[in-house]
């Protein structure tokens, strides 16, 4: 447990003194905890984990390493306990139609999507559409969406930066490995043709070619605000909105065709 605590403290760039002050414990006691000379209570472990902003799964891991039971449950999404979560997600996905919306887990695997989400999988090779579908791999792989992303260098840089920040925040080796994999895909050189519109000065849009139509999207991410379940804490809804009237018209046309 002490080794895990020390690793997370260093990941967050905190000294023992910094963490002890934030957690309301003496630096001496914290040092004893890290070296194994003192066994912390589960309450102290959770207080330290809270100050280190550790993911719920990692908090459970540190409790187990300290000899205690996990504090946070981890249900399958189909379990009865998560029925309200499934209902909320379905309402978001359905309500967002005819615009694409995807439910993803903490490793960017596609859990569910509304019908408009098929816009992004159309044309991708089968090995990228076989579950579990990783939406970042689907986006940047040359057999996936990448050939149809009109501003690929810009969008690729945005996704890699976001993934790098997420990996650093969670200290998750799966995300670090995914980042290294995606970095090796082509498409990082060159510059997208400049588009002088209002949205490009505010957010990074996704410019995507569907058939002969150039579509433009902006995206939002929705998280559960107070998760106490490991599974729920890793869920996110990625919703895409049309960034121009032509995209709006095209999506409504596709929905009714």
Automatic annotation (TrEMBL):
Domain HTH cro/C1-type as annotated: residue spans: 5-59
Pfam assignment, any one: MLTR_LBD
Tree of life domain: Bacteria
InterPro entries for the chain: Cro/C1-type_HTH, Lambda_DNA-bd_dom_sf, MLTR_LBD
A molecular function (GO) term: DNA binding
Record-given protein name: Transcriptional regulator, contains XRE-family HTH domain
């Amino acid at each position: 447990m002490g080794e895990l605590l020390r690793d997370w403290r260093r990941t967050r760039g905190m000294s023992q003194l910094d963490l002890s002050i934030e957690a309301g414990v003496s630096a001496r006691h914290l040092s004893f905890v890290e070296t194994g000379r003192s066994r912390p209570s589960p309450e102290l472990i959770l207080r330290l984990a809270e100050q280190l902003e550790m993911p719920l799964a990692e908090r459970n891991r540190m409790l187990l390493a300290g000899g205690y039971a996990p504090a946070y449950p981890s249900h399958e999404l189909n379990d009865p306990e998560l029925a309200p979560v499934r209902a909320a997600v379905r309402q978001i996905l359905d309500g967002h139609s005819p615009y694409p919306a995807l439910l993803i887990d903490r490793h960017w695997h596609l859990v569910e999507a509304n019908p408009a989400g098929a816009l992004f999988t159309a044309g991708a090779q089968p090995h990228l559409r076989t579950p579990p579908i990783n939406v970042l791999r689907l986006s940047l792989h040359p057999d996936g969406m990448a050939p149809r992303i009109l501003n690929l260098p810009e969008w690729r840089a945005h996704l890699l930066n976001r993934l790098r920040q997420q990996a650093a925040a969670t200290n998750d080796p799966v995300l670090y490995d995914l980042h290294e994999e995606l970095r090796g895909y082509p498409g990082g050189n060159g510059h997208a043709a400049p588009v002088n519109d209002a949205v490009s000065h505010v957010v990074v849009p996704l410019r995507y070619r569907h058939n002969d139509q150039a579509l433009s999207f902006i995206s939002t991410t929705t998280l559960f605000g107070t998760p106490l379940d490991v599974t729920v804490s890793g869920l996110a809804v990625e919703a895409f909105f049309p960034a121009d009237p032509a995209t709006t018209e095209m999506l409504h046309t596709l929905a009714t065709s």
